[in-house]
Structures are given as structure tokens and as C-alpha cells.
């Protein structure tokens, strides 16, 4: 190796290149020299190391530097050659020999560096020292010993799949996902290879220890810090290896940390590894996890007093301005909670003993992060909070309980002793404060809000925390809490939906007997079957299969059902009763399963065995879904079951039985069919069945009479259904067409006969349904069912649609019965699907119901119109869009929220330009302004105009809620274009006097300036901070975040220049003209114009004169307004930032009293100034200005010619008693 150093220095070119690159890149050697090195292997390294070690140990011998000089070995060349091997071994693709040689070369360099005289001979180089110190983490394979050779190919294939980029929503990108590194080519190492690398690692660690014993790093804090991190990584790297094989490496690493803490290497407080290492942590979760484990191992060896000091430091560290530090503090807390809790007696210092309990870690470090500025930290803290409930520490579990449930239990013996001995303050400091009932309710409310947070990561973590609290009975299993959980199964984000499905399944597994949990599981999982995302569908189907289908076992009367089977039949029972609204989704699951051939003969037989049990309703439910897709069925058993229960059939179970009979009808003989038809006809003619059963019975009747010959089928229907129609018609005619026929009305029979007409598919004489709308004495329920019947008949006969559509529209306008009008809305929307052209003219009549006096009709109309717009049966024509906007400000919050959901998640996706296209017209429409030549020109009745008008000052808040909603969902391009359009269509029209500046015109112009002043109107790329969201700093390790921030800054600069140019060229001339016009007319709108300019010019306050060079007076006025606003803002910030100081008064009070004293003393009012303390203590809310006015009648505001008058102190309401001493009042801070 020395010969190589000598030969490499012959030209000097290669050596100079290495030193010029500061040992950051590997410079290739000559091919001949490199071949010689590969032949020599690492034997030459070991020989040279032993020689140098002998000289270093015996300081009496000749200096090694002199020996090297005598043998013409240049030190500079030797260091360059060693660096060549070090950098080669550091490469990701390095083979075993390169790694071993690199470790040996690093050991040689560290050994040379520790020999006296290394500084003088210029051996030391900080970059090379750091590289050699960190070489262990690069040379030791990360997955050594974890994989077997037979899994190599499989692992490689998996890595290839993982390396493919997956489609993910932008809002779903987590911190860890942004830092994924490129997968390196996997190398295989044998046991012998690992042993060779391990021996070289040991040699390097020993060399570094020898260096720290002799070579001080006191003046090199960066190298000391880097060595600390390297030692910590060495601990982590070999922490979980085979102890019998690698026992010495962690011991040496800990000894190295001990050496670094000696005074030789600097201030112990600065080098303290447990404090220094967290500050060096990066965002990647793997590094954080390993780092937290290392910190936990260090702290486990500490004395309790030192441990408490570290916890105090960690408490401050958790409030760092760096997001990654706060994130890492949460990881460290979780590691510390896994350790045994320390006793208070182990720390005699009462100042630090309060940091020992686990309760402090949970409440003061972990739970406090729920309010963190960074969504990533929030989510991580909430996820860890859920894990605390799984810890073996009973005190940790109790600490979580105390956060969400106030307990009236007495204090523990230790708490009681502490309180009796040292007082309640000491008890609080030791054990933390007890949360009140209201505080725990607020904590739970905050968690429920986090479940609906705008950030995906936070929502997922909050879901996990909520499930943990419910599983461990920390919070009650109320429907409010469970509904929040099941609602997230329909979250807009796919990952949240999957997490919610996992959570409800986890909760059901923990609480299978709870009926409320069962209902929540059904409400969450069953609708997910029709989710647009296939992966969510699959997860829901898998859950339903595992819980329902797979648990259907044979039933024996004498055998008890196990827990899983009881759960299955309980869930099916809920589907038959309380959760009937899920039937359509449940049927969809069986449609999918039928294509997968999941319905076996065994399943059918097992279900049939349950038809005689107490839970037979659930069995018939499953049979009604399974039978249509099963090729072979036990028809005899089904007919036996039919015969045994046909005399006592009611409700939902009867519908399922009838459904099964209809499905097997094609396999029955004629005799059996006739018998069943006779049974059905006898039931139907009595009209004692419920409406649902009548519908199912008619459908089954049709299935029994259907044949391949259409004429035979029609003949069967004419005979059987004709009988039913005749009975219904005779009864209805006797009630409706006869005078005083309603006196003999049986409402229940009337309701059951009315729909039967439609189900039997027969025409009804026109006089009968029309009478439903005439003034009569029929009950509302009868009239409502009559309307539904007429609607069903209209769906079958087009001529009835033409005849009765005007009747339906008239009923919507003049009808007074809620049920009737609600049904008319449903009918007209259904007719629109089949007869779109005919019903299109009546859409304004339907949309008018969005302002109906009844909330149920408004909600129904909103849902039906949204469906029609989604399927494009209806277009955004006329006033429809603006009526939807009015629904956004509905007095019922649920309807307003539903409207927002429909617009954003259903309709805006189909037409992204929808909001921007209608925005300008919204300004004219909601203010009822129709003097513009292009806008607000569609036809509306006066009644509809009044109903949907938002004109006037009292409706201003509603109008601006709509404007803000629209603008919030604009793109920046749409914001820019809409600003230009406002200039052209509104401001220009008033500036050119095309629109009169009368009262209505002034209102429109004032409204326009206020809209332009909204913060939502500003371009997001300009208003968004360059660093991204609060708390999400661009760390040096996160290059993706830095690149994004740099790109955002550049984009912001370009867009700002474009906007500035457009404002100067297009807006400024209009503003100058409008200002002149408004001044001439002395219009109050001038105030709004100046307010708009003040808001707009905040970003260009130094360029006002450049912008308004055409109007110097306007520029001067605007500059003055901006300066005044800036002073007011600074004063407000100063007042808000004041806090308690050593003085018993707040800084605000001190400043206020100082200024008042100065003002009063200048006037010489000595007696008045003596009263100031009394006034401030008695009236703490009184401002400085009021005091000045009260105490000095002659004072005047600076710069103002108006003088103030004395104002009497009059309180409109009785004032609450206040503590008179000022120090007492200021003893509490206002959080």
C-alpha cells in the first residue's frame, strides 16, 4: 500500500485532484495500480495496521512520520489512497471486498490521526474524519441475516412492484411518502462475508475509540456532533443482532459516547448524546423509529434524577419550531412509555420528580400535540395516543382515561399523602391535574372534529384513536360517537374509507354483543359495496363475507350458537328491521358474489335449517338474495316451509318468502302454481296486507303466471289482476264519486287499494285520480297515496303525462299538504327521466320547492334535482343554478351542508367551470338588479322573485356566504379571469355611465368592491406562504419539500408580475374614472372604493405612486390610508402579544398607565393622576382613549382638528363585582 502511495505521487495529478474535491467524490486510479490492489486484498491493510499500532503504542521509538519520510512515502498521497478505499466501500453497490477494504482503510486513517504530529503533518481533514466515522452504517448490510436465499427472487419481484409509482391523491401525500428513496440493487451476502465485514467493523470501532482517547474534538464541535450521531447509529445498527455474536459492538459504542461526554471534547451539555441526537434527526419514519429506540436505551441506563432532567428537556424539545423535532419527540415518548415507570422516591429533588410519572408524558407531551400546527404531528400524536391504551402500564391507561372521562374516585394513597404533606399544588405537580367534566367533553369534541379534519393523515389517526377509546370503554358507546365512525366509511379519500372500514371491523370484534356497534358496522360497511373505488368495494365485500356468509352453519334445536354465529344472526335481524334502508346495497353484494359462484348447496341447506328457528327472518333474507343465483335448490323443503308459515305471514319476512317463491316459480308444476296463486289471490282480495307485502305478492303472482308465450302471460294477468282492479275500482268509485261517500271511508283500506291499481298495471278512469287534487274531504294520507298511484300510471302511459303534468305543477304551487307536495316532487322528477322533453318546461316549478316552507320538501327537491343533473336529464338553465346557491344558506344547517356536498362532490366534478360561469350573474341576481343588458334576464314570476330574493342589507351576510363559497373553489386562473370580467362587465359599465348610478346601481357597485376585497379573491399562489403550511418547514433532509418551496417562490414571483401588469393596465384607469365620478355625485360608494384599494395595495404599498401616477391626489390619500392601517395593525398585535411579567400588571396596563400619566402630567392635573389606579382596577375594560377623554376634557387627538368633549360614564347593564386590588385581578392569565 505504501508503494501505491509512492507511485501515485509520481505525477501528483491524481493526488491533487483528490484533495481538491475535499474527499467528497471518488477519483479513479490507474488501471494497473487498481489491479495490483485487488490482488493484495486486505492482508496488506492488516499488516500495515499492526505495524502502525506498535509504533503508536511505543512513543519512545522513532517517530512514524520520520520513518515515512525516510521511505519517501508522501503523507498527502497516503491519505489520498486511503480515501480512495473508504469512498469505494461507502458506495451502495460495493461488494464484500470493497467494503472490508474500506473499513480497514478508515481504521488506518483514524489510527494515523491519533498519533501525535498528525495535525502538523496535515493528516487531519474534517470531511474525511466524518466519512470514516460514519462508514459502519454504509458497509453493514441493513437486512443481513433476515432473508433466506430461497426468498431472494420473490423479494426482488416485490421490490420491483413497490418501485412503480402509484396513483395517490395530492392531499394524501404523507411526510414519509415524500422521502422514499430509489430502491438499490439487492446484494447477497453469505455468513462468511458478514463475518469478515463484522471483524472490519470491530477494528474500525476500536480505532475510533483510540482516537477519542488521544485526539481532542473540543475545537471541532461539528465533528464531535457527527461522531455522536455515528455512535448512536452504531448502537441502533447492532442493537437487535445476535448478542452472543456481536456483544462487543454496542458496548464499544456506549464507551465511545462516554468518551465524547468528557471535557476533552467540549461542554458536556452540548455533547450530551440523548439531547444532541434528537436535534440531528431527520423526517424519515425508519430513522425516527431507530433513533427513538436508541434514546430509550440510553435513558434506561440513567439515574432517575438525570432521567427527569432529560424529560424536562424533552418537554421543551416537543415545542420546537421544527416540525421534525416535534414529530420525533412523540416517538421518544412512546419508547419511554414502554419502560417501567419510575418511583417518585428515586428522585429526591421535588423540582424534577414531577417529570417521572407516565401521566406527565401522556398529558403534557403526547396529548398536547393534538393542537400542533403541523397536521403530520397532529396525526402522529393521535395515533400514538391510541397505542397508549394497549400498553401494560396501568398508570398510562389511567392517564388516557382521565383525558376523556372525569372520575369522582378518591385519590390514591400516594396522592393523598403528597397532598396532606406538601399541599394540593404539590400533588398537581407530581400527578398532573384532574380534568373536569366540561374539559373531558371538550377533549372528546375536539377528537370528533379531528375525525372530520381537512387533512387525510389527521382523519385516519383520529379514527384509530376513537376506536381505541371505544374499545377500552373510555368514552360511551353512544350512537353519536359510533355514527361519526361509520360516516367516515364514505369519506372522499380512499385511504380514510379503508381505515374506517378497518376500524368498525375492529370495534365489532371487540364488542360483538353491543347492538349499537352492530348497527354502526352495518351502516359503515354495507353501503361501501357500491363505492366507486374497487379496492373499497373489495374490502367491504370481504368483511361481509367473513361476518355473514362464512358463519352460516347448520342449525340444531338443542345446540347453542357460538359467539360468531350469534353475531351473524343479530346483524341479519337488524337488516330485516332497523336497517331496511340498506337493502339495496345488500342486494348489490349478492349480485357480485353470484358471479364468483359463492352460493353452494351446503349454504342453501344450512339456511333452510334456520327457517324454523327464532331468527328465521334472517335466513329468509339470505335465501331471497341467494336463490336467484343458485342452479339447484331443495324445492320440496322450500314448499314445505311455505305451507307451514303461509297462514301467519307479516312484514318484511313475508316479502322475503314471497321473493323466494317467485324465484322458484319457473321450476314448479302447474298444480303447485295454481295452489300458490289461489293462496295469493285470497290474501290480496282481503286487502289486509301491508303495502310492502301487497307489492311483493303482485310481483310473485306475475312470476307464477309468466310463460314463454306472451299471450298466455297477458291472459293470466287480465284474469287475475283484472279481478283485483275490479275490486279496487268498485271500492274507490263508491268513496270518490258518490256524494258523501267519504263518510263511509276506511282510510287503511283506501290506502291499500289505491296503490294496488298501479301494481296491477291497469288503466284507471281519468275522473278518479283527478279527484285527488280537487277540494274534498279525503284524508291527507289517502291523497298522498293517490298521487303516487297516479304517478306510477303516468310512467306507463304517455298520454296521462301530458294530461296531468299541469295538475302536478299547480299542486306544487297551491297545495297545502306536505305529504302530497313531497310526493308530487318525486313523481315529476321520475317522469323527467322517462319523458325529459315534456317535463323540462316544469323544472322551474320543481326548483321553486328549494324555498318551500317545509324542510322535508326542500331536502327532497335538492336530492332529486341533483340526481337529474348528475345524469344530465336536466341542464343548468334559467334560474336553476341560483336557486341551488340559495339552498347553501338554508336556515336548516343539515340542508345547507347537503347542498354543499351535492355541489362540490357530485356536480362540480362534472362541470369544473360551473361556478365561474355563473359568478357575475350571481351579483346581479341576488341583488335583484335587472338593468344590465346581458345579465339576470331569464323569466320568473313575481312570486318566485320574492321567494328567492336576497336583496337588501339584512341579506348581505347570506349573499357573501355564497360569494365566498364559490370563490374558495375557484382555480387561480378562474380568479384572475373573473377579476378581468368584473372590470369589463361591471366597473367599466358604471365608469362609462352605461349603467345609472342610482340607488340600485350604487348598491351593485358597492357590492362589487366588497367582493373584490375578499381574501378569497386573491390568487392562492400569491397568498400561500412560501414555506407551505404552518409548521411544515423545508428541512435540509427533505429535498422534495425544498424543491417545491423554491418552485412556489418562482411561480409566485411570475404570477405577481402578471397580476401587477393587468391591474395597472386594466383596473387602475377604471378606478381613477370611477373615483372622479363618485366624487362628483358625492356617492357613499367612494368609501368602498377606497377600502378596496387599501386591501389590494397591501402587497404593493411601496409602489403606490407608480400605480396611480395619473392621479397624484388618489396616490397620496391611499398612502396615508395604508400607513394609518399599518399603525393600527401593529398596535393591535402589540396589545395581543402582551403577557404577564414580573410586574403585577400586564405590559398593556403598564404602557397604558404610562401614556395616561404623561398626558395628564403635561397638563399638570396632579390630583386626577392619583385616581388612575382606582379607575383601572374598577373598570378593567376601559381603554386608554376613554380614560384620556374622561380625565382631560381639553385633550385632542394628534393630527385632528376636532376636540373631544367630556363623556359621562353610563353602564347599560349592571356590572359584575370585580376584585379591587389590581394585583389580584392580574393574577390570572387570559388564555
Explain the layout of strands and helices:
Elements: H1 2-8, H2 13-20, H3 31-40, H4 43-57, H5 64-70, H6 75-90, H7 96-114, H8 126-133, H9 135-139, H10 152-163, H11 191-214, H12 221-237, H13 243-246, H14 248-260, H15 268-271, H16 273-279, H17 285-300, H18 304-317, H19 323-337, H20 350-353, H21 358-366, H22 375-388, H23 394-404, H24 413-422, H25 424-431, H26 437-451, H27 456-471, H28 479-487, H29 494-510, H30 515-525, H31 534-547, H32 563-576, H33 583-595, H34 601-609, H35 616-626, H36 635-645, H37 651-663, H38 670-686, H39 691-705, H40 710-736, H41 747-759, H42 767-770, H43 780-796, H44 798-814, H45 818-834, H46 836-839, H47 843-847, H48 855-870, H49 880-887, H50 893-907, H51 914-926, H52 942-948, H53 956-968, H54 972-991, H55 999-1012, H56 1020-1023, H57 1039-1081, H58 1085-1096, H59 1104-1107, H60 1112-1136, H61 1147-1163, H62 1166-1169, H63 1172-1178, H64 1184-1191, H65 1222-1225
Keywords:
disordered C terminus; globular; mainly alpha; Cnd1_C; CND1/NCAPD3; 65 helices; histone binding; 65% helix; 1231 residues
Textual characterization of the structure:
- It is a single chain.
- With 1231 residues, the chain is mainly α.
- Helix content is 65%, strand content 0%.
- α6 runs antiparallel to α7 (96-114), α17 crosses α19 and α37 runs parallel beside α39 (691-705).
- The longest helix is centred in the C-terminal third of the chain and has 43 residues, at 1039-1081.
- The protein starts with a helix and ends in a 6-residue tail after the last helix.
- Keywords: Cell cycle, Cell division, DNA condensation, Mitosis, Nucleus.
- Residues 157-184 are annotated as: Disordered.
- One of its GO terms (biological process) is mitotic chromosome condensation.
Amino acid at each position: 500500500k505504501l508503494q501505491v502511495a509512492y507511485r501515485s505521487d509520481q505525477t501528483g495529478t491524481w493526488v491533487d485532484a483528490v484533495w481538491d474535491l475535499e474527499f467528497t467524490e471518488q477519483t479513479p486510479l490507474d488501471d494497473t495500480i487498481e489491479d495490483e490492489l485487488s490482488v493484495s486484498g486486505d492482508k496488506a491493510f492488516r499488516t500495515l495496521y499492526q505495524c502502525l499500532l506498535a509504533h503508536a503504542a511505543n512513543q519512545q521509538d522513532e517517530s512514524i512520520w520520520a520513518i515515512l519520510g525516510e521511505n519517501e512515502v508522501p503523507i498527502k498521497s497516503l491519505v489520498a489512497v486511503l480515501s480512495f478505499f473508504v469512498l469505494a466501500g461507502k458506495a451502495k453497490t460495493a461488494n464484500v471486498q470493497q467494503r472490508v477494504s474500506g473499513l480497514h482503510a478508515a481504521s488506518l486513517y483514524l489510527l494515523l490521526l491519533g498519533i501525535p504530529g498528525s495535525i502538523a503533518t496535515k493528516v487531519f481533514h474534517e470531511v474525511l474524519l466524518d466519512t470514516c466515522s460514519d462508514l459502519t452504517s454504509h458497509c453493514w448490510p441493513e437486512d443481513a441475516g433476515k432473508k433466506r436465499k430461497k426468498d431472494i427472487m420473490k423479494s426482488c419481484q416485490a421490490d420491483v412492484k413497490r418501485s412503480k409509482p402509484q396513483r395517490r391523491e395530492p392531499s394524501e401525500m404523507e411526510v414519509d411518502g415524500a422521502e422514499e428513496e430509489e430502491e438499490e440493487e439487492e446484494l447477497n451476502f453469505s455468513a462468511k462475508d458478514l463475518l469478515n465485514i463484522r471483524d472490519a467493523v470491530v477494528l474500525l470501532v476500536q480505532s475510533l475509540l483510540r482516537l477519542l482517547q488521544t485526539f481532542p474534538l473540543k475545537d471541532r464541535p461539528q465533528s464531535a456532533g457527527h461522531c455522536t450521531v455515528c455512535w448512536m447509529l452504531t448502537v441502533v445498527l447492532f442493537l437487535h443482532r445476535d448478542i452472543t455474536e456481536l456483544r462487543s459492538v454496542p458496548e464499544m459504542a456506549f464507551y465511545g459516547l462516554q468518551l465524547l461526554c468528557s471535557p476533552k471534547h467540549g461542554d458536556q451539555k452540548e455533547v450530551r448524546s440523548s439531547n444532541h441526537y434528537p436535534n440531528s434527526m431527520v423526517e424519515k419514519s425508519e430513522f425516527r423509529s431507530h433513533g427513538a429506540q436508541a434514546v430509550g436505551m440510553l435513558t434506561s441506563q440513567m439515574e432517575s434524577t438525570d432521567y427527569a432532567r432529560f424529560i424536562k428537556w424533552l418537554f421543551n424539545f416537543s415545542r420546537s419550531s421544527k416540525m421534525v423535532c416535534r414529530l420525533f419527540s412523540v416517538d421518544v415518548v412512546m419508547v419511554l412509555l414502554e419502560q417501567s415507570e419510575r418511583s417518585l422516591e428515586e428522585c429526591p429533588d421535588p423540582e424534577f420528580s414531577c417529570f417521572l410519572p407516565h401521566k406527565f408524558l401522556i398529558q403534557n407531551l403526547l396529548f398536547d400535540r393534538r393542537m400542533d400546527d403541523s397536521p403530520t404531528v397532529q396525526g402522529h400524536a393521535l395515533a400514538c395516543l391510541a397505542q397508549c391504551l394497549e400498553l401494560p402500564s396501568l398508570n398510562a391507561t389511567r392517564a388516557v382515561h382521565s383525558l376523556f372521562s372525569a372520575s369522582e374516585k378518591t385519590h390514591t394513597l400516594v396522592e393523598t399523602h403528597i397532598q396532606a404533606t406538601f399541599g394540593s399544588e404539590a400533588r398537581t405537580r407530581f400527578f398532573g391535574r384532574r380534568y373536569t367534566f366540561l374539559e373531558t367533553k371538550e377533549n372528546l369534541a375536539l377528537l370528533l372534529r379531528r375525525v372530520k379534519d381537512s387533512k387525510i393523515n389527521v382523519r385516519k389517526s383520529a379514527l384509530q384513536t376513537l376506536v381505541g377509546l371505544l374499545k377500552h370503554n373510555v368514552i360511551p358507546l353512544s350512537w353519536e360517537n359510533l355514527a361519526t365512525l361509520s360516516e367516515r366509511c364514505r369519506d372522499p379519500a380512499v385511504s380514510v374509507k379503508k381505515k374506517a372500514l378497518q376500524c368498525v371491523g375492529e370495534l365489532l370484534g371487540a364488542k360483538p354483543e353491543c347492538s349499537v356497534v352492530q348497527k354502526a358496522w352495518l351502516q359503515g360497511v354495507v353501503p361501501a359495496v357500491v363505492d366507486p373505488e374497487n379496492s373499497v368495494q373489495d374490502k367491504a365485500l370481504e368483511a361481509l363475507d367473513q361476518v355473514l356468509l362464512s358463519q352460516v352453519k347448520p342449525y340444531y334445536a338443542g345446540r347453542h350458537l357460538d359467539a360468531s354465529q350469534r353475531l351473524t344472526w343479530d346483524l341479519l335481524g337488524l337488516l330485516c328491521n332497523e336497517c331496511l334502508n340498506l337493502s339495496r346495497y345488500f342486494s348489490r353484494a349478492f349480485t357480485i358474489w353470484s358471479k364468483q359462484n359463492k352460493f353452494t348447496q351446503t349454504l342453501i341447506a344450512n339456511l333452510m335449517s334456520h327457517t324454523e328457528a327464532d331468527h328465521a327472518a334472517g335466513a329468509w333474507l339470505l335465501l331471497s338474495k341467494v336463490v336467484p343465483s343458485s342452479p339447484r335448490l331443495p324445492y320440496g323443503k322450500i314448499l314445505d316451509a311455505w305451507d307451514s308459515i303461509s297462514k301467519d305471514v307479516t312484514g318484511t319476512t313475508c316479502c322475503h318468502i314471497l321473493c323466494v317463491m317467485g324465484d322458484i316459480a319457473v321450476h314448479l308444476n302447474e298444480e303447485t302454481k295454481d295452489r300458490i296463486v289461489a293462496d295469493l289471490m285470497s290474501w290480496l282480495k282481503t286487502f289486509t296486507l301491508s303495502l310492502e307485502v301487497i307489492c311483493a305478492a303482485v310481483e310473485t303472482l306475475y312470476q307464477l303466471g309468466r310463460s314463454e308465450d306472451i299471450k298466455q302471460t297477458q291472459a293470466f294477468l287480465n284474469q287475475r289482476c283484472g279481478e283485483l282492479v275490479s275490486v279496487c275500482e268498485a271500492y274507490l268509485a263508491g268513496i270518490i264519486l258518490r256524494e258523501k261517500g267519504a263518510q263511509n271511508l276506511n282510510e287503511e283500506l283506501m290506502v291499500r287499494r289505491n296503490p294496488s291499481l298501479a301494481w296491477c298495471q291497469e288503466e284507471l278512469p281519468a275522473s278518479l285520480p283527478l279527484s285527488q287534487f280537487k277540494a274534498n274531504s279525503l284524508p291527507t294520507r289517502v291523497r298522498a297515496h293517490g298521487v303516487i298511484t297516479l304517478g306510477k300510471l303516468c310512467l306507463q302511459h304517455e298520454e296521462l303525462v301530458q294530461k296531468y303534468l299541469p295538475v302536478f305543477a299547480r299542486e306544487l304551487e297551491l297545495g297545502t299538504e306536505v305529504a302530497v307536495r313531497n310526493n308530487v316532487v318525486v313523481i315529476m322528477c321520475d317522469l323527467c327521466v322517462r319523458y325529459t322533453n315534456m317535463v323540462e318546461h316544469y323544472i322551474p316549478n320543481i326548483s321553486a320547492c328549494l324555498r318551500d316552507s317545509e324542510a322535508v320538501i326542500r331536502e327532497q327537491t335538492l336530492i332529486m334535482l341533483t340526481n337529474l343533473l348528475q345524469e344530465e336529464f336536466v341542464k343548468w338553465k334559467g334560474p336553476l343554478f341560483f336557486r341551488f346557491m340559495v339552498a347553501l344558506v338554508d336556515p336548516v344547517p343539515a340542508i345547507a351542508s347537503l347542498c354543499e356536498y351535492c355541489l362540490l362532490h357530485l356536480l362540480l366534478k362534472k362541470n369544473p367551470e360551473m361556478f365561474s360561469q355563473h359568478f357575475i350573474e350571481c351579483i346581479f341576481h341576488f341583488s335583484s338588479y335587472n338593468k344590465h343588458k346581458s345579465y339576470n334576464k331569464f323569466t320568473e314570476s313575481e312570486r318566485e322573485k320574492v321567494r328567492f330574493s336576497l336583496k337588501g342589507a339584512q341579506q348581505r351576510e347570506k349573499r357573501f356566504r355564497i360569494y365566498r363559497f364559490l370563490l374558495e373553489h375557484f382555480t387561480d386562473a378562474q380568479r384572475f379571469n373573473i377579476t378581468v370580467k368584473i372590470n369589463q362587465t361591471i366597473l367599466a359599465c358604471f365608469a362609462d355611465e352605461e349603467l345609472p348610478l342610482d340607488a340600485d346601481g350604487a348598491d351593485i357597485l358597492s357590492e362589487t368592491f366588497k367582493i373584490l376585497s375578499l381574501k378569497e379573491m386573491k390568487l392562492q399562489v400569491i397568498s400561500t406562504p412560501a414555506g407551505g403550511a404552518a409548521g411544515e418547514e423545508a428541512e435540509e433532509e427533505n429535498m422534495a419539500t425544498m424543491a417545491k418551496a423554491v418552485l412556489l417562490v418562482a411561480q409566485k414571483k411570475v404570477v405577481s408580475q402578471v397580476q401587477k401588469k393587468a391591474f395597472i393596465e386594466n383596473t387602475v384607469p377604471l378606478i381613477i374614472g370611477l373615483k372622479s365620478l363618485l366624487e362628483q355625485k358625492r356617492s357613499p360608494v367612494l368609501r368602498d372604493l377606497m377600502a378596496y384599494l387599501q386591501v389590494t395595495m397591501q402587497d404593493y404599498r411601496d409602489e403606490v405612486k407608480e400605480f396611480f401616477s395619473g392621479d397624484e391626489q388618489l396616490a397620496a390619500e391611499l398612502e396615508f390610508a395604508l400607513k394609518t392601517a399599518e399603525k393600527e395593525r401593529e398596535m393591535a398585535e402589540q396589545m395581543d402579544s402582551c403577557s404577564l411579567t414580573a410586574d403585577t400588571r400586564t405590559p398593556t396596563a403598564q404602557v397604558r398607565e404610562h401614556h395616561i400619566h404623561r398626558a395628564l402630567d403635561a397638563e399638570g392635573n396632579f390630583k386626577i393622576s392619583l385616581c388612575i389606579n382606582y379607575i383601572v382596577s374598577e373598570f378593567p375594560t376601559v381603554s386608554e382613549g376613554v380614560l384620556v377623554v374622561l380625565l382631560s376634557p381639553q385633550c385632542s387627538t394628534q393630527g385632528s382638528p376636532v376636540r373631544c368633549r367630556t363623556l359621562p360614564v353610563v353602564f347599560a347593564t349592571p356590572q359584575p363585582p370585580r376584585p379591587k386590588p389590581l394585583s389580584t385581578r392580574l393574577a390570572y392569565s387570559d388564555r
